[in-house]
Design goal:
The complex is a heterodimer of chains A (282) and B (298). With 282 residues, chain A is α/β, with parallel strands linked by helices. Chain A is built from ten helices and ten strands. Helix content of chain B is 68%, strand content 8%.
Chain lengths: 282, 298
Protein backbone atom coordinates (compact mmCIF):
# COMPACT_ATOMS: atom_id res chain seq x y z
CA UNK A 1 0.00 0.00 0.00
CA UNK A 2 1.28 3.37 -0.95
CA UNK A 3 2.27 5.83 1.77
CA UNK A 4 -0.16 8.48 0.57
CA UNK A 5 -3.09 6.14 0.86
CA UNK A 6 -2.04 4.91 4.26
CA UNK A 7 -1.84 8.50 5.33
CA UNK A 8 -5.30 9.21 3.98
CA UNK A 9 -6.68 6.22 5.79
CA UNK A 10 -5.11 7.30 9.07
CA UNK A 11 -6.66 10.72 8.65
CA UNK A 12 -9.95 9.04 7.92
CA UNK A 13 -9.79 6.87 11.01
CA UNK A 14 -9.06 9.78 13.32
CA UNK A 15 -11.84 11.92 11.83
CA UNK A 16 -15.30 12.10 13.42
CA UNK A 17 -17.68 9.33 12.37
CA UNK A 18 -19.85 11.54 10.17
CA UNK A 19 -16.84 12.91 8.34
CA UNK A 20 -15.39 9.57 7.41
CA UNK A 21 -15.50 8.84 3.74
CA UNK A 22 -17.61 5.70 3.52
CA UNK A 23 -16.52 2.83 1.40
CA UNK A 24 -18.64 2.55 -1.70
CA UNK A 25 -17.31 -0.89 -2.49
CA UNK A 26 -15.95 -3.34 0.01
CA UNK A 27 -14.70 -6.85 -0.83
CA UNK A 28 -13.90 -9.04 2.18
CA UNK A 29 -12.28 -12.35 1.36
CA UNK A 30 -14.55 -12.67 -1.63
CA UNK A 31 -14.01 -15.80 -3.70
CA UNK A 32 -15.79 -16.94 -6.78
CA UNK A 33 -15.64 -20.50 -7.96
CA UNK A 34 -17.50 -21.43 -11.13
CA UNK A 35 -19.52 -24.66 -11.32
CA UNK A 36 -16.87 -25.97 -13.72
CA UNK A 37 -14.36 -25.79 -10.88
CA UNK A 38 -12.39 -22.80 -12.21
CA UNK A 39 -11.69 -20.04 -9.77
CA UNK A 40 -12.73 -16.61 -10.95
CA UNK A 41 -11.59 -14.82 -7.84
CA UNK A 42 -9.64 -15.99 -4.81
CA UNK A 43 -9.90 -14.29 -1.44
CA UNK A 44 -10.09 -10.73 -2.74
CA UNK A 45 -10.05 -8.04 -0.07
CA UNK A 46 -10.07 -4.37 -0.96
CA UNK A 47 -12.24 -1.35 -0.56
CA UNK A 48 -12.98 1.64 -2.73
CA UNK A 49 -14.02 4.92 -1.21
CA UNK A 50 -16.51 7.43 -2.45
CA UNK A 51 -15.25 9.62 -5.24
CA UNK A 52 -12.31 7.44 -6.14
CA UNK A 53 -11.20 6.62 -9.65
CA UNK A 54 -9.86 3.08 -9.61
CA UNK A 55 -8.39 0.86 -12.27
CA UNK A 56 -8.67 -2.88 -12.19
CA UNK A 57 -5.90 -4.32 -14.31
CA UNK A 58 -4.78 -7.78 -15.21
CA UNK A 59 -4.61 -10.17 -18.10
CA UNK A 60 -7.62 -11.86 -19.61
CA UNK A 61 -8.94 -14.38 -17.13
CA UNK A 62 -7.34 -12.67 -14.15
CA UNK A 63 -10.70 -11.94 -12.54
CA UNK A 64 -11.53 -8.36 -13.59
CA UNK A 65 -14.77 -9.30 -15.23
CA UNK A 66 -15.63 -11.57 -12.33
CA UNK A 67 -15.39 -8.59 -9.99
CA UNK A 68 -17.65 -6.64 -12.36
CA UNK A 69 -20.17 -9.46 -12.53
CA UNK A 70 -20.14 -9.79 -8.75
CA UNK A 71 -20.74 -6.06 -8.45
CA UNK A 72 -23.83 -6.13 -10.65
CA UNK A 73 -24.95 -9.27 -8.85
CA UNK A 74 -24.97 -11.36 -11.97
CA UNK A 75 -23.07 -13.94 -9.93
CA UNK A 76 -22.90 -14.68 -6.23
CA UNK A 77 -19.54 -15.03 -4.48
CA UNK A 78 -18.93 -18.56 -3.22
CA UNK A 79 -17.19 -17.18 -0.14
CA UNK A 80 -16.69 -13.84 1.59
CA UNK A 81 -18.84 -10.75 1.50
CA UNK A 82 -19.29 -7.86 -0.88
CA UNK A 83 -20.74 -4.62 0.34
CA UNK A 84 -21.84 -1.79 -1.90
CA UNK A 85 -22.75 1.49 -0.22
CA UNK A 86 -22.87 -0.37 3.08
CA UNK A 87 -25.33 -3.04 1.94
CA UNK A 88 -24.33 -6.69 1.86
CA UNK A 89 -25.11 -7.92 -1.65
CA UNK A 90 -25.82 -11.46 -0.50
CA UNK A 91 -28.81 -10.24 1.50
CA UNK A 92 -30.24 -8.56 -1.58
CA UNK A 93 -33.34 -10.38 -2.81
CA UNK A 94 -33.39 -11.44 -6.47
CA UNK A 95 -36.48 -9.33 -7.01
CA UNK A 96 -34.64 -6.25 -5.72
CA UNK A 97 -31.71 -6.65 -8.11
CA UNK A 98 -33.21 -4.40 -10.82
CA UNK A 99 -33.69 -1.61 -8.28
CA UNK A 100 -30.13 -2.06 -7.06
CA UNK A 101 -28.79 -1.89 -10.61
CA UNK A 102 -30.47 1.47 -11.15
CA UNK A 103 -27.92 2.89 -8.71
CA UNK A 104 -25.08 1.63 -10.85
CA UNK A 105 -23.90 2.93 -14.15
CA UNK A 106 -22.53 0.08 -16.23
CA UNK A 107 -20.37 0.40 -19.36
CA UNK A 108 -19.21 -2.59 -21.36
CA UNK A 109 -16.56 -3.29 -23.93
CA UNK A 110 -19.19 -4.17 -26.53
CA UNK A 111 -21.36 -1.12 -25.68
CA UNK A 112 -24.54 -3.19 -25.26
CA UNK A 113 -26.82 -0.65 -26.89
CA UNK A 114 -30.32 -1.53 -28.02
CA UNK A 115 -29.91 -1.79 -31.79
CA UNK A 116 -33.48 -0.82 -32.71
CA UNK A 117 -33.50 2.43 -30.78
CA UNK A 118 -32.02 5.80 -31.60
CA UNK A 119 -29.30 7.36 -29.47
CA UNK A 120 -31.93 9.44 -27.70
CA UNK A 121 -34.19 6.43 -27.05
CA UNK A 122 -31.30 4.30 -25.82
CA UNK A 123 -30.46 6.86 -23.16
CA UNK A 124 -34.13 7.52 -22.43
CA UNK A 125 -34.70 3.81 -21.82
CA UNK A 126 -32.62 3.98 -18.65
CA UNK A 127 -35.04 6.62 -17.38
CA UNK A 128 -38.17 4.82 -18.57
CA UNK A 129 -37.07 1.73 -16.66
CA UNK A 130 -37.17 3.69 -13.42
CA UNK A 131 -40.61 5.04 -14.27
CA UNK A 132 -39.33 8.37 -15.49
CA UNK A 133 -41.97 10.35 -17.37
CA UNK A 134 -41.75 12.32 -20.57
CA UNK A 135 -40.92 15.51 -18.72
CA UNK A 136 -37.93 13.97 -16.98
CA UNK A 137 -36.68 12.50 -20.24
CA UNK A 138 -37.00 15.82 -22.01
CA UNK A 139 -35.07 17.51 -19.22
CA UNK A 140 -32.26 15.03 -18.74
CA UNK A 141 -31.49 13.26 -22.00
CA UNK A 142 -30.42 16.26 -24.13
CA UNK A 143 -28.28 17.43 -21.22
CA UNK A 144 -26.37 14.21 -20.84
CA UNK A 145 -25.95 13.91 -24.60
CA UNK A 146 -24.44 17.37 -24.70
CA UNK A 147 -22.07 16.41 -21.90
CA UNK A 148 -20.94 13.36 -23.86
CA UNK A 149 -20.68 15.30 -27.12
CA UNK A 150 -23.49 13.54 -28.93
CA UNK A 151 -25.92 16.43 -29.28
CA UNK A 152 -25.90 16.17 -33.08
CA UNK A 153 -26.38 12.40 -33.22
CA UNK A 154 -29.67 12.37 -31.35
CA UNK A 155 -31.69 10.51 -33.97
CA UNK A 156 -29.03 8.16 -35.29
CA UNK A 157 -29.22 4.45 -34.69
CA UNK A 158 -26.26 2.71 -33.02
CA UNK A 159 -25.09 1.07 -36.25
CA UNK A 160 -24.75 4.52 -37.81
CA UNK A 161 -22.20 5.58 -35.21
CA UNK A 162 -18.48 4.97 -34.84
CA UNK A 163 -17.21 2.77 -32.04
CA UNK A 164 -16.17 5.75 -29.94
CA UNK A 165 -19.55 7.40 -30.38
CA UNK A 166 -21.36 4.21 -29.45
CA UNK A 167 -19.30 3.97 -26.28
CA UNK A 168 -20.19 7.59 -25.51
CA UNK A 169 -23.85 6.67 -25.82
CA UNK A 170 -23.26 3.77 -23.43
CA UNK A 171 -21.57 6.11 -20.96
CA UNK A 172 -24.40 8.62 -21.33
CA UNK A 173 -26.94 5.89 -20.63
CA UNK A 174 -24.96 4.72 -17.62
CA UNK A 175 -24.75 8.22 -16.21
CA UNK A 176 -28.17 9.66 -17.03
CA UNK A 177 -29.57 8.61 -13.65
CA UNK A 178 -26.52 10.17 -11.94
CA UNK A 179 -25.63 6.95 -10.14
CA UNK A 180 -23.21 7.15 -7.22
CA UNK A 181 -21.11 4.38 -8.76
CA UNK A 182 -20.07 3.83 -12.35
CA UNK A 183 -18.32 0.64 -13.41
CA UNK A 184 -16.79 0.11 -16.81
CA UNK A 185 -15.58 -3.25 -18.06
CA UNK A 186 -12.90 -2.71 -20.73
CA UNK A 187 -14.58 0.47 -21.99
CA UNK A 188 -11.76 1.11 -24.46
CA UNK A 189 -11.11 -2.49 -25.45
CA UNK A 190 -12.58 -2.06 -28.92
CA UNK A 191 -11.35 1.46 -29.57
CA UNK A 192 -8.24 3.05 -31.04
CA UNK A 193 -5.87 4.96 -28.68
CA UNK A 194 -7.08 8.48 -29.52
CA UNK A 195 -10.74 7.53 -29.10
CA UNK A 196 -9.84 5.71 -25.90
CA UNK A 197 -8.39 8.91 -24.48
CA UNK A 198 -11.67 10.66 -25.26
CA UNK A 199 -13.63 8.01 -23.39
CA UNK A 200 -11.22 8.14 -20.44
CA UNK A 201 -11.57 11.92 -20.33
CA UNK A 202 -15.33 11.50 -20.26
CA UNK A 203 -15.07 9.03 -17.38
CA UNK A 204 -12.73 11.41 -15.59
CA UNK A 205 -15.21 14.25 -16.04
CA UNK A 206 -17.92 12.06 -14.54
CA UNK A 207 -15.61 11.15 -11.68
CA UNK A 208 -15.08 14.85 -10.97
CA UNK A 209 -18.83 15.24 -10.32
CA UNK A 210 -18.36 12.97 -7.31
CA UNK A 211 -19.23 9.64 -8.87
CA UNK A 212 -17.02 6.74 -7.94
CA UNK A 213 -15.60 5.21 -11.11
CA UNK A 214 -14.16 1.70 -11.42
CA UNK A 215 -12.57 0.83 -14.74
CA UNK A 216 -11.36 -2.63 -15.66
CA UNK A 217 -8.76 -2.68 -18.41
CA UNK A 218 -5.77 -4.60 -19.66
CA UNK A 219 -4.23 -1.48 -21.15
CA UNK A 220 -1.25 -1.13 -18.79
CA UNK A 221 0.24 1.80 -20.65
CA UNK A 222 -2.93 3.85 -20.29
CA UNK A 223 -3.18 3.03 -16.60
CA UNK A 224 0.43 3.97 -15.92
CA UNK A 225 -0.02 7.30 -17.64
CA UNK A 226 -3.22 8.16 -15.79
CA UNK A 227 -1.58 7.83 -12.39
CA UNK A 228 -4.64 6.68 -10.47
CA UNK A 229 -5.18 3.97 -7.96
CA UNK A 230 -4.53 0.57 -9.49
CA UNK A 231 -5.72 -2.80 -8.28
CA UNK A 232 -3.92 -5.51 -10.18
CA UNK A 233 -5.22 -9.03 -10.42
CA UNK A 234 -3.44 -12.16 -11.48
CA UNK A 235 -5.06 -15.58 -11.62
CA UNK A 236 -7.95 -14.38 -9.49
CA UNK A 237 -5.78 -12.88 -6.72
CA UNK A 238 -5.22 -9.24 -5.90
CA UNK A 239 -1.47 -8.84 -6.40
CA UNK A 240 -1.13 -5.07 -6.21
CA UNK A 241 -3.15 -2.23 -4.82
CA UNK A 242 -1.43 1.12 -4.95
CA UNK A 243 -1.61 4.69 -6.01
CA UNK A 244 0.68 5.34 -8.92
CA UNK A 245 2.83 8.45 -8.56
CA UNK A 246 1.58 11.60 -6.91
CA UNK A 247 -2.08 12.15 -7.45
CA UNK A 248 -4.63 14.02 -5.47
CA UNK A 249 -8.28 14.18 -6.26
CA UNK A 250 -9.37 17.05 -8.48
CA UNK A 251 -5.79 18.00 -9.13
CA UNK A 252 -5.95 18.32 -12.88
CA UNK A 253 -8.55 19.62 -15.28
CA UNK A 254 -9.96 17.42 -17.96
CA UNK A 255 -7.78 19.08 -20.56
CA UNK A 256 -4.63 18.53 -18.56
CA UNK A 257 -5.78 15.02 -17.94
CA UNK A 258 -6.02 14.43 -21.70
CA UNK A 259 -2.55 15.81 -22.20
CA UNK A 260 -1.33 13.50 -19.49
CA UNK A 261 -2.75 10.57 -21.35
CA UNK A 262 -1.00 11.52 -24.57
CA UNK A 263 2.42 11.55 -22.89
CA UNK A 264 4.52 8.53 -23.61
CA UNK A 265 4.39 6.03 -20.81
CA UNK A 266 7.59 4.97 -19.14
CA UNK A 267 9.16 2.26 -21.25
CA UNK A 268 8.24 -1.13 -19.88
CA UNK A 269 11.14 -3.34 -18.89
CA UNK A 270 10.60 -6.76 -20.32
CA UNK A 271 12.71 -9.86 -20.41
CA UNK A 272 14.32 -10.38 -23.82
CA UNK A 273 12.24 -12.53 -26.11
CA UNK A 274 13.99 -15.90 -26.59
CA UNK A 275 12.77 -15.90 -30.20
CA UNK A 276 14.70 -12.77 -31.12
CA UNK A 277 17.86 -14.15 -29.50
CA UNK A 278 17.46 -17.11 -31.74
CA UNK A 279 17.20 -14.81 -34.77
CA UNK A 280 20.35 -12.95 -33.77
CA UNK A 281 22.34 -16.14 -33.47
CA UNK A 282 21.67 -17.11 -37.04
CA UNK B 1 -49.27 5.91 -18.92
CA UNK B 2 -47.78 2.53 -18.13
CA UNK B 3 -50.03 0.54 -20.47
CA UNK B 4 -49.69 2.99 -23.34
CA UNK B 5 -45.92 2.81 -22.92
CA UNK B 6 -45.94 -1.00 -23.02
CA UNK B 7 -48.29 -0.97 -25.98
CA UNK B 8 -46.08 1.43 -27.89
CA UNK B 9 -43.05 -0.72 -27.08
CA UNK B 10 -44.89 -3.80 -28.36
CA UNK B 11 -45.90 -2.06 -31.59
CA UNK B 12 -42.36 -0.81 -32.08
CA UNK B 13 -40.95 -4.30 -31.87
CA UNK B 14 -43.63 -5.62 -34.24
CA UNK B 15 -42.53 -2.93 -36.69
CA UNK B 16 -38.84 -3.50 -36.18
CA UNK B 17 -39.02 -7.30 -36.32
CA UNK B 18 -41.28 -7.57 -39.33
CA UNK B 19 -40.00 -10.95 -40.53
CA UNK B 20 -40.21 -12.85 -37.21
CA UNK B 21 -43.59 -11.22 -36.61
CA UNK B 22 -44.77 -12.41 -40.00
CA UNK B 23 -43.53 -15.91 -39.22
CA UNK B 24 -45.40 -15.87 -35.91
CA UNK B 25 -48.62 -14.72 -37.56
CA UNK B 26 -48.21 -17.32 -40.31
CA UNK B 27 -47.71 -20.14 -37.84
CA UNK B 28 -50.77 -19.05 -35.87
CA UNK B 29 -52.79 -18.91 -39.11
CA UNK B 30 -51.71 -22.40 -40.14
CA UNK B 31 -52.36 -23.88 -36.71
CA UNK B 32 -55.76 -22.28 -36.26
CA UNK B 33 -56.74 -23.23 -39.79
CA UNK B 34 -55.78 -26.85 -39.23
CA UNK B 35 -57.57 -26.97 -35.89
CA UNK B 36 -60.59 -25.18 -37.30
CA UNK B 37 -60.89 -27.72 -40.09
CA UNK B 38 -60.15 -30.74 -37.97
CA UNK B 39 -62.35 -30.14 -34.96
CA UNK B 40 -65.60 -30.38 -37.03
CA UNK B 41 -64.17 -33.19 -39.18
CA UNK B 42 -63.28 -35.25 -36.13
CA UNK B 43 -66.65 -34.54 -34.59
CA UNK B 44 -68.48 -35.52 -37.77
CA UNK B 45 -66.45 -38.70 -38.11
CA UNK B 46 -66.92 -39.83 -34.53
CA UNK B 47 -70.57 -38.82 -34.81
CA UNK B 48 -70.95 -40.98 -37.89
CA UNK B 49 -69.12 -43.83 -36.18
CA UNK B 50 -71.42 -43.56 -33.20
CA UNK B 51 -74.43 -43.56 -35.45
CA UNK B 52 -73.25 -46.76 -37.11
CA UNK B 53 -72.68 -48.26 -33.69
CA UNK B 54 -76.20 -47.26 -32.70
CA UNK B 55 -77.45 -49.59 -35.38
CA UNK B 56 -75.87 -52.60 -33.72
CA UNK B 57 -78.73 -54.91 -32.74
CA UNK B 58 -79.17 -58.33 -31.25
CA UNK B 59 -82.03 -60.27 -32.80
CA UNK B 60 -83.71 -62.82 -30.59
CA UNK B 61 -85.69 -65.22 -32.77
CA UNK B 62 -88.33 -67.27 -31.00
CA UNK B 63 -89.35 -70.71 -32.11
CA UNK B 64 -92.06 -70.61 -34.77
CA UNK B 65 -94.47 -72.44 -32.53
CA UNK B 66 -94.03 -70.05 -29.60
CA UNK B 67 -97.26 -69.18 -27.80
CA UNK B 68 -98.08 -65.67 -26.64
CA UNK B 69 -97.30 -66.77 -23.06
CA UNK B 70 -93.78 -67.67 -24.25
CA UNK B 71 -93.50 -64.28 -25.86
CA UNK B 72 -94.46 -62.56 -22.62
CA UNK B 73 -92.00 -64.67 -20.63
CA UNK B 74 -89.15 -63.82 -22.98
CA UNK B 75 -90.08 -60.15 -22.91
CA UNK B 76 -89.87 -60.13 -19.11
CA UNK B 77 -86.63 -62.07 -19.30
CA UNK B 78 -85.15 -59.52 -21.66
CA UNK B 79 -86.35 -56.34 -20.01
CA UNK B 80 -85.80 -57.32 -16.39
CA UNK B 81 -83.37 -60.17 -15.97
CA UNK B 82 -80.73 -59.50 -18.58
CA UNK B 83 -77.87 -57.05 -18.29
CA UNK B 84 -76.71 -54.66 -21.04
CA UNK B 85 -80.19 -54.34 -22.53
CA UNK B 86 -80.97 -50.88 -23.84
CA UNK B 87 -84.20 -51.06 -25.80
CA UNK B 88 -86.40 -53.98 -26.68
CA UNK B 89 -88.57 -53.90 -29.73
CA UNK B 90 -91.06 -56.69 -30.40
CA UNK B 91 -91.73 -57.65 -33.98
CA UNK B 92 -94.55 -60.15 -34.23
CA UNK B 93 -94.81 -62.86 -36.85
CA UNK B 94 -97.44 -60.89 -38.71
CA UNK B 95 -95.49 -57.62 -38.66
CA UNK B 96 -92.37 -59.35 -39.88
CA UNK B 97 -94.31 -61.02 -42.67
CA UNK B 98 -95.82 -57.70 -43.74
CA UNK B 99 -92.39 -56.02 -43.83
CA UNK B 100 -90.69 -58.81 -45.70
CA UNK B 101 -93.51 -59.13 -48.16
CA UNK B 102 -93.24 -55.47 -49.00
CA UNK B 103 -89.53 -55.89 -49.62
CA UNK B 104 -89.77 -59.03 -51.71
CA UNK B 105 -93.37 -59.53 -52.88
CA UNK B 106 -92.82 -62.36 -55.44
CA UNK B 107 -90.95 -64.66 -53.09
CA UNK B 108 -93.59 -64.39 -50.39
CA UNK B 109 -96.33 -64.81 -52.98
CA UNK B 110 -94.83 -68.22 -53.82
CA UNK B 111 -94.38 -69.11 -50.19
CA UNK B 112 -97.98 -68.73 -49.23
CA UNK B 113 -97.71 -69.35 -45.51
CA UNK B 114 -95.72 -67.31 -42.94
CA UNK B 115 -92.40 -68.97 -42.09
CA UNK B 116 -91.16 -66.11 -39.94
CA UNK B 117 -90.78 -66.35 -36.18
CA UNK B 118 -91.65 -63.77 -33.55
CA UNK B 119 -88.61 -61.59 -33.00
CA UNK B 120 -87.24 -59.28 -30.33
CA UNK B 121 -84.90 -56.60 -31.59
CA UNK B 122 -82.72 -55.80 -28.66
CA UNK B 123 -80.56 -52.69 -28.73
CA UNK B 124 -77.68 -53.04 -26.23
CA UNK B 125 -77.13 -50.20 -23.75
CA UNK B 126 -73.76 -49.64 -25.38
CA UNK B 127 -72.67 -50.85 -28.77
CA UNK B 128 -69.58 -52.47 -27.29
CA UNK B 129 -71.79 -54.72 -25.13
CA UNK B 130 -73.58 -56.32 -28.08
CA UNK B 131 -71.42 -59.40 -28.02
CA UNK B 132 -71.65 -59.76 -24.25
CA UNK B 133 -75.42 -59.53 -24.49
CA UNK B 134 -75.46 -62.24 -27.08
CA UNK B 135 -73.29 -64.46 -24.92
CA UNK B 136 -75.61 -63.91 -22.02
CA UNK B 137 -78.72 -64.85 -23.93
CA UNK B 138 -77.11 -67.79 -25.66
CA UNK B 139 -74.02 -68.96 -23.81
CA UNK B 140 -71.59 -71.17 -25.66
CA UNK B 141 -71.88 -74.71 -24.40
CA UNK B 142 -68.94 -77.04 -23.81
CA UNK B 143 -69.59 -78.64 -27.17
CA UNK B 144 -69.01 -75.28 -28.85
CA UNK B 145 -72.63 -74.84 -29.85
CA UNK B 146 -74.79 -72.13 -28.55
CA UNK B 147 -77.81 -73.01 -26.49
CA UNK B 148 -80.29 -70.34 -25.53
CA UNK B 149 -81.29 -69.70 -21.94
CA UNK B 150 -84.99 -69.97 -22.62
CA UNK B 151 -86.61 -72.95 -24.36
CA UNK B 152 -88.80 -70.58 -26.41
CA UNK B 153 -85.75 -68.88 -27.93
CA UNK B 154 -84.67 -70.50 -31.12
CA UNK B 155 -81.65 -68.42 -32.07
CA UNK B 156 -79.81 -65.32 -30.92
CA UNK B 157 -78.11 -63.48 -33.72
CA UNK B 158 -76.39 -60.24 -34.30
CA UNK B 159 -77.76 -58.54 -37.35
CA UNK B 160 -75.97 -60.24 -40.26
CA UNK B 161 -73.30 -61.02 -37.67
CA UNK B 162 -71.38 -57.92 -38.69
CA UNK B 163 -71.46 -56.36 -35.29
CA UNK B 164 -67.87 -57.37 -34.66
CA UNK B 165 -66.73 -55.77 -37.88
CA UNK B 166 -68.66 -52.57 -37.25
CA UNK B 167 -67.28 -52.32 -33.76
CA UNK B 168 -63.68 -52.83 -34.88
CA UNK B 169 -64.05 -50.44 -37.78
CA UNK B 170 -65.55 -47.63 -35.73
CA UNK B 171 -63.03 -48.19 -32.99
CA UNK B 172 -60.20 -47.88 -35.50
CA UNK B 173 -61.73 -44.75 -36.97
CA UNK B 174 -62.10 -43.17 -33.55
CA UNK B 175 -58.59 -44.13 -32.50
CA UNK B 176 -57.09 -42.87 -35.75
CA UNK B 177 -58.89 -39.56 -35.38
CA UNK B 178 -57.79 -39.22 -31.80
CA UNK B 179 -54.17 -39.89 -32.72
CA UNK B 180 -54.31 -37.53 -35.66
CA UNK B 181 -55.69 -34.76 -33.49
CA UNK B 182 -53.09 -35.40 -30.80
CA UNK B 183 -50.31 -35.24 -33.38
CA UNK B 184 -51.72 -32.06 -34.86
CA UNK B 185 -52.03 -30.39 -31.49
CA UNK B 186 -48.47 -31.38 -30.56
CA UNK B 187 -47.22 -30.12 -33.93
CA UNK B 188 -49.09 -26.85 -33.47
CA UNK B 189 -47.69 -26.31 -29.99
CA UNK B 190 -44.16 -27.06 -31.20
CA UNK B 191 -44.58 -24.76 -34.19
CA UNK B 192 -45.81 -21.85 -32.11
CA UNK B 193 -43.33 -22.28 -29.28
CA UNK B 194 -40.52 -22.58 -31.79
CA UNK B 195 -41.59 -19.40 -33.53
CA UNK B 196 -41.78 -17.58 -30.22
CA UNK B 197 -38.37 -18.85 -29.17
CA UNK B 198 -36.83 -17.88 -32.48
CA UNK B 199 -38.11 -14.34 -32.26
CA UNK B 200 -37.05 -14.10 -28.63
CA UNK B 201 -33.66 -15.61 -29.30
CA UNK B 202 -32.95 -12.89 -31.83
CA UNK B 203 -33.68 -10.40 -29.10
CA UNK B 204 -32.01 -12.02 -26.11
CA UNK B 205 -29.24 -9.42 -26.20
CA UNK B 206 -31.84 -6.74 -25.99
CA UNK B 207 -33.38 -8.41 -22.95
CA UNK B 208 -29.93 -8.72 -21.38
CA UNK B 209 -29.28 -5.01 -21.86
CA UNK B 210 -32.66 -4.13 -20.38
CA UNK B 211 -31.84 -6.22 -17.33
CA UNK B 212 -28.47 -4.54 -16.92
CA UNK B 213 -30.03 -1.09 -17.08
CA UNK B 214 -32.23 -2.11 -14.16
CA UNK B 215 -35.52 -3.12 -15.76
CA UNK B 216 -37.70 -5.41 -13.68
CA UNK B 217 -38.80 -8.72 -15.18
CA UNK B 218 -42.36 -7.57 -15.77
CA UNK B 219 -41.21 -4.29 -17.29
CA UNK B 220 -39.44 -6.35 -19.94
CA UNK B 221 -42.13 -8.98 -20.15
CA UNK B 222 -45.24 -6.87 -20.73
CA UNK B 223 -44.29 -5.58 -24.18
CA UNK B 224 -43.46 -9.13 -25.25
CA UNK B 225 -46.75 -10.49 -23.92
CA UNK B 226 -48.72 -7.69 -25.57
CA UNK B 227 -46.84 -8.32 -28.79
CA UNK B 228 -47.71 -12.03 -28.54
CA UNK B 229 -51.37 -11.21 -27.97
CA UNK B 230 -51.47 -8.77 -30.90
CA UNK B 231 -49.78 -11.23 -33.26
CA UNK B 232 -51.92 -14.12 -32.00
CA UNK B 233 -55.09 -12.10 -32.49
CA UNK B 234 -54.00 -11.06 -35.96
CA UNK B 235 -53.24 -14.65 -36.97
CA UNK B 236 -56.45 -15.89 -35.35
CA UNK B 237 -58.60 -13.34 -37.18
CA UNK B 238 -56.96 -14.15 -40.51
CA UNK B 239 -57.43 -17.89 -40.05
CA UNK B 240 -61.05 -17.44 -38.96
CA UNK B 241 -61.76 -15.30 -42.02
CA UNK B 242 -60.26 -18.04 -44.21
CA UNK B 243 -62.41 -20.63 -42.42
CA UNK B 244 -65.48 -18.46 -42.95
CA UNK B 245 -64.72 -18.15 -46.66
CA UNK B 246 -64.21 -21.92 -46.85
CA UNK B 247 -67.45 -22.58 -45.00
CA UNK B 248 -69.49 -20.27 -47.19
CA UNK B 249 -67.88 -21.32 -50.45
CA UNK B 250 -67.51 -25.07 -49.92
CA UNK B 251 -69.44 -26.52 -47.02
CA UNK B 252 -72.73 -24.64 -47.09
CA UNK B 253 -73.68 -25.51 -50.71
CA UNK B 254 -72.93 -29.18 -49.98
CA UNK B 255 -74.68 -29.32 -46.63
CA UNK B 256 -78.01 -30.10 -48.25
CA UNK B 257 -76.60 -33.09 -50.07
CA UNK B 258 -74.63 -34.78 -47.33
CA UNK B 259 -76.16 -35.65 -44.04
CA UNK B 260 -72.71 -36.11 -42.57
CA UNK B 261 -71.69 -32.49 -42.90
CA UNK B 262 -74.95 -31.21 -41.48
CA UNK B 263 -74.63 -33.75 -38.70
CA UNK B 264 -76.03 -32.16 -35.56
CA UNK B 265 -73.07 -33.28 -33.43
CA UNK B 266 -70.63 -30.81 -35.01
CA UNK B 267 -69.79 -27.71 -33.01
CA UNK B 268 -71.58 -24.54 -34.09
CA UNK B 269 -69.47 -22.18 -36.10
CA UNK B 270 -69.69 -19.24 -33.71
CA UNK B 271 -68.55 -21.36 -30.75
CA UNK B 272 -65.72 -22.76 -32.84
CA UNK B 273 -64.62 -19.25 -33.85
CA UNK B 274 -64.69 -18.02 -30.27
CA UNK B 275 -62.72 -21.05 -29.11
CA UNK B 276 -60.07 -20.71 -31.81
CA UNK B 277 -59.67 -16.99 -31.22
CA UNK B 278 -59.31 -17.42 -27.47
CA UNK B 279 -56.79 -20.24 -28.01
CA UNK B 280 -54.65 -18.28 -30.48
CA UNK B 281 -54.55 -15.18 -28.28
CA UNK B 282 -54.03 -17.13 -25.07
CA UNK B 283 -51.33 -19.44 -26.37
CA UNK B 284 -49.36 -16.61 -28.00
CA UNK B 285 -49.56 -14.33 -24.97
CA UNK B 286 -48.76 -16.94 -22.36
CA UNK B 287 -46.17 -18.59 -24.62
CA UNK B 288 -44.32 -15.31 -25.11
CA UNK B 289 -44.35 -14.59 -21.38
CA UNK B 290 -43.15 -18.04 -20.41
CA UNK B 291 -40.51 -18.41 -23.10
CA UNK B 292 -38.96 -15.15 -21.97
CA UNK B 293 -38.20 -16.61 -18.56
CA UNK B 294 -35.02 -18.28 -19.75
CA UNK B 295 -33.56 -15.03 -21.00
CA UNK B 296 -34.49 -13.10 -17.89
CA UNK B 297 -31.94 -14.93 -15.76
CA UNK B 298 -29.20 -12.33 -16.10
Amino acid sequence: MAISERHAQRLDRTAAADQQVPNVIEFRGASMRFPSGDSGLIDATFSIRRGEFVFLVGQTGSGKSTIMRLLIKEHEPTAGTIRVAGHDLSTLDRKKVPYYRRNLGIVFQDFKLLPDRTVHDNVAYALQVTGGGRKEIRAKVPDILRLTGLATKLHNFPDQLSGGEQQRVAVARAFVNHPPLLIADEPTGNLDPETSIGIMQLLYRINRTGTTVVVATHDHAMVDRMRRRVIELNGGRVVRDELTAGYRQGEVSTGEFGALLREPAPAPRRLPDPGSLFDDAF
Amino acid sequence: MRFSFFFREAMRSVNRNAIPSFAAVASVVVTVLVLGVFIPVVQATTGAANEVRGRVLVDVFLKTDAKSADVERVRVLLTEKTKHVGKVQYVSKADAYKQEKKRNPEAYQLLGSNPLPDTFRVTPDEADNALALRDELAPTAASGRRTSIDPAIDKVENRKDQTGKILTATRVVKLAMFMLVTLLVIASILLISNTIRLSLFSRRREVEVMKLVGATDWFIRWPFVIEGIVLGALGGVMAILLLLVGKIALIDPLAGDFALIASPETISFSVLVALLFAASVGVSGVGAGLSLRRFLRV
